[in-house]
Write a structure and sequence with these properties.
heterotrimer; A mainly alpha; B alpha/beta; C mainly alpha; A: mainly alpha; 13 helices; C: mainly alpha; 9 helices
């Protein structure tokens, strides 16, 4: 429409300085939408340094990783940005892991709900409690180790203290697992103490796994601890008259003992996480 | 006499029944040192030790004077180290930028702005800045190697450990890689392992030849070439006294070994020297067996 | 590949394929006038900068969605003004002073005004600044009542009444 006609320099000058009156300015703006020549004329009047700074910010936004949902949630909780990024790299903190865990626990809880009062009621409840207690252990295993963390070697060679990384991730895994298990537990038949019976064992097992991981590789530690406990829990449930022996008084006391012992071991042996070497 | 940048002192390492390193010793000054050797020579094992990822069973290592068996000195090394493993693993769904950013966090770069600037800097250095926001699984092998090199260059480390960095790259990519490394080297310490004698000839003022877990040779590329002086000749076909022989592009046979009198001697190359050393040892073992 | 000679449409298509340099060229061409135009609607330079930055990030992400349904600059303006409005919705900001109509209209200005707006331009000049701002927002910038309200920092009802008054006055002036 107006390609052969161009705005006069005075108008452009006034416009760039912000002093052009509204009517002429509106007119000029409509013209600028269609005229590359006048756009160029006006561009010369915007400071180069300002444009460069803005472009840098744009590039940063384009390159910067898009936080996933979980990472955004963590940032909302006040977690430092670089810690949140680290956690995002943890495979077990990806959405798929959460969904798998939620599904497993949810199913177990519903099964317990449906079989309550029947002969199988004790077994399904046992199953739920076992899963809830072992979930964080599996999560810790999934977050570490050469088979799972692809950049494992580069990670070892980096200055970040191995124990710091481990604890940050383990805390996140534990927190998330407890949250999911807690929600799933609301589907249990009796909303009494039963709902929390898995909590201390979960903490105890996770901390014991971390402690054992100062000797063994994380996955080996998780398997050893998990399987041992499972066998003991099953055996105690069969041997005694109480199917949930592993979760009742004796079980809770043992869990507490495990927590205390593990904390002491970890305090002593933290540096063992440095330079963990795959054979 | 100044302290060498790298000291490897009688290092032994076994994995189960396999001996990876059997009394390896050598020194390296600042600058680029190339480790040449066939598969199984122990190059990767040694480089992992240099990267503080592995500890020797017996023996000592010093990097810029620090001892990686002491935890605080190990940390000091790691703060000045860039490591590119032989098989760099990547988080599958990360973009190139995200991956290098992750490693940057592990290298204690906590401030987002400066960290992102540094990530962009190293990615531009290796020439992948155009594909920064592509997922790694969508990048070609050559590009992935460059990303792996980029993370090693984070923070401008004083020590660079590169394990077979040019493996699987085509000649043009190898050339580009050599440019990047030689530009970076300066007076930094670079330890790199390779199969390719051309890499060593082009890049490394110092060479160590390894075989079966120990060092066969330590010196300059010229000295390695001179090992084959007077021991390379051309003949119409394979010479019976040659240790190794192969057809060259012109159709004659290049022979290495003890030249018969009157043989048509030619100037040796680095590869000749290397093959003579390595072939000799392997040959001797064959004889014994 | 020199992107400099390409038209905006071509550049935008290249941006949709992930061409960073094409975006840089589009930025070079369009960021300056966008800064100026947005500055006339928001007096806070920090906000204007943020909005321009967000706009080009949005251009990068949404390039594939551009259907050559209008000119590229108009499309970019649409993104920009809407970004500004949603930004102002979160946090109201100072609005630039209205510039009174200059009673001395030169011959060149006559051309300028009449080329774009015809007699409308002169009639617009005779409106009060508040009415003119509403006309500019709703008619020239193409905003909805709600958007115009956020931009100008006035209630929606006020936008409607002023728009109605402006329409009446303009109709009388052009009659």
């Amino acid at each position: 429409m107006s390609t052969t006609w161009h705005a006069d320099p005075e108008a452009l000058e006034l416009y760039s300085a912000g002093h052009l009156d509204d009517v002429r300015a509106s007119s000029l703006e409509a013209h600028l939408l269609a005229c590359p020549h006048c756009r160029g004329a006006v561009a010369a009047r915007v400071p180069r340094s300002q444009l460069d700074t803005m472009w840098n910010t744009i590039e940063d936004a384009l390159d910067a990783p898009q936080p996933g949902i979980i990472e955004l949630a963590l940032l909302q909780l006040g977690v430092h940005e670089h810690v949140a990024r680290l956690l995002a790299a943890t495979s077990s903190l990806r959405l798929s892991w959460f969904l798998a865990e939620a599904f497993a626990l949810g199913s177990a809880a519903f099964a317990a709900q449906h079989t309550a009062g029947t002969g199988a009621g004790g077994a399904t409840l046992f199953l739920f409690l076992v899963l809830a207690a072992l979930a964080p252990v599996a999560g810790v295993a999934a977050a570490f180790g050469p088979g799972v963390d692809p950049a494992y070697e580069i990670g070892i060679a980096s200055p970040m203290r191995g124990d710091r990384l481990l604890f940050v991730r383990a805390t996140a895994v534990l927190g998330a697992s407890i949250l999911i298990a807690g929600i799933a537990a609301l589907a249990l038949p009796d909303l009494d103490w039963t709902v929390t019976l898995w909590l201390l064992p979960a903490l105890g097992l996770t901390l014991t796994t971390l402690a054992v991981a100062t000797w063994l590789q994380p996955i080996a530690a998780a398997c050893t601890v998990g399987l041992t406990w499972l066998v003991v829990a099953a055996a105690s449930s069969v041997a005694t008259t109480d199917p949930l022996a592993a979760f009742h008084v004796v079980g809770q006391l043992v869990s507490t003992l495990a927590i205390v012992t593990s904390v002491l071991v970890l305090a002593q042996r933290r540096s063992a996480y440095e330079g963990r070497i795959p054979s | 006499m100044s302290v060498p940048a790298v000291e490897i002192i009688d290092v032994h390492k076994r994995f189960g029944r396999t001996t990876a390193l059997a009394g390896l010793s050598f020194d390296a000054p600042a600058g680029i040192t190339g480790l040449l050797g066939p598969n199984g020579a122990g190059k990767t094992t040694l480089l992992r030790m240099a990267a503080t990822v592995l500890a020797p069973d017996i023996g000592q290592i010093r990097l810029l004077g620090w001892d990686p068996s002491l935890s605080d000195e190990r940390l000091a090394i790691r703060r000045r180290l860039g490591y590119m493993p032989q098989e760099p693993g990547f988080h599958r769904s990360f973009t190139a930028f995200e991956f290098v950013d992750y490693i940057a966090i592990l290298k204690e770069m906590t401030d987002r702005r400066t960290r992102h600037d540094e990530v962009r800097r190293v990615l531009t250095l290796v020439g992948v800045d155009g594909v920064m926001d592509r997922k790694i699984k969508a990048l070609s092998g050559g590009m992935r190697r460059r990303v792996a090199l980029a993370q090693a260059l984070l923070g401008d480390p004083d020590i660079l450990v590169l394990d077979e960095p040019t493996a699987g790259l085509d000649p043009e990519q190898r050339l580009r890689f050599r440019e990047i490394v030689s530009e970076r080297a300066g007076d930094r310490t670079v330890l790199l392992s390779t199969h390719q004698t051309e890499d060593v000839a082009a890049l490394c003022p110092r060479v160590v030849v390894m075989l079966d877990g120990s060092a066969l040779f330590e010196g300059t590329p010229k000295e390695l070439t001179d090992v084959a002086a007077g021991r390379v000749w051309l003949a119409p076909e394979r010479s019976p006294s040659a240790r190794l022989s192969w057809r060259n592009p012109e159709g004659a046979h290049r022979n290495i070994g003890d030249a018969p009198s009157g043989a048509d001697l030619v100037a040796p190359t680095l590869e000749d020297g290397y093959l003579l050393l390595v072939g000799q040892r392997a040959f001797t073992e064959e004889e014994v067996a | 590949m020199t992107v400099r000679a390409d038209g905006d449409d071509t550049l935008l298509a290249a941006v949709a394929t992930g061409d960073r340099e094409a975006l840089a060229e589009l930025y070079h061409r369009h960021a300056p006038w966008l800064v100026l135009r947005l500055s006339r609607r928001c007096a806070d330079p920090g906000i204007v900068e943020e909005v321009v930055q967000d706009t080009f990030v949005a251009v990068w992400r949404g390039a594939a969605r551009y259907r050559a349904s209008g000119e590229v600059p108009a499309w970019i303006w649409g993104i920009g003004i809407r970004r500004l409005i949603s930004r102002l919705r979160q946090r109201p900001a100072p609005i630039p002073r209205m510039h009174a109509h200059d009673t001395m209209v030169s011959a060149e200005d006559e051309v300028l005004i009449s080329v774009e707006h015809g007699d409308l331009g002169a009639a617009l000049g005779r409106l009060s600044p508040e009415l003119r701002a509403v006309v500019q927002a709703t008619v020239l910038d193409g905003l909805t009542t709600k958007e115009a309200a956020t931009l100008l920092g006035i209630p929606r009802g006020t936008v409607k009444t002023r728009a109605a008054r402006a329409r009446r006055e303009l109709r009388e002036a052009l009659a």
